[in-house]
Design goal:
The protein contains one helix and eight strands; from the N terminus they run αββββββββ. It is an alpha+beta fold and about 140 residues long. The chain has two domains: about 1-30; about 50-135, C-type lysozyme inhibitor (Lipocalin, Beta Barrel). The chain has an eight-stranded antiparallel barrel with strand order 1-2-3-4-5-6-7-8. Strand 3 (about 75-85) and strand 4 (about 85-95) form a beta hairpin. It starts with a helix and ends in a 5-residue tail after the last strand.
């Protein structure tokens, strides 16, 4: 037991000395690199009718191709839209015209072969993040 405490105390003293030497030499000690984490999501939807999954490609004003996946499983109607390099799951909401989907602060609105992506926190008069035209048929 005394040997374990002595080794632990020696290790702490050695680490403190190394840190002090690194600071004296003007070196900045590096922080440990956090581990990379990945995750996957499985979403199960039950529906009394057929579940339809379609994909549509949009060409946007910034010359970006946007791939949107639509999942129609009444009463759930979803769109999976990439925003800032991450896939967001959008749920349909009330719309006077077209198909309007929201995910957190983002809105994807498609109508007649056109789609717009907006950040709703930017206000009603803000320009859309993306304005796109369908290169394929959309739901």
């Amino acid at each position: 037991m005394i040997l374990n405490r002595t080794i632990a105390a020696f290790g702490l003293a050695l680490a403190a000395t190394s840190l002090a030497l690194a600071q004296d030499e003007g070196e900045t000690p590096t922080a440990p690199t956090p581990p990379t984490v990945t995750a996957a999501l499985t979403l199960t939807l039950e529906s009394n009718s057929d579940i339809e999954r379609t994909s549509a490609t949009y060409l946007c004003d910034n010359e970006q191709a946007l791939q949107v996946h639509y999942i129609n499983a009444a009463p759930n109607f979803l769109a999976i839209v990439p925003v800032d390099g991450q896939s967001h799951i959008f749920a349909t909401t009330i719309s006077a015209s077209g198909a309007r989907y929201v995910s957190g602060p983002f809105e994807w609105w498609s109508k007649g072969g056109e789609g717009t992506l907006r950040d709703l926190t930017q206000g009603d008069d803000a320009e859309p993040m993306l304005t796109c035209t369908s290169a394929t048929e959309t739901p």
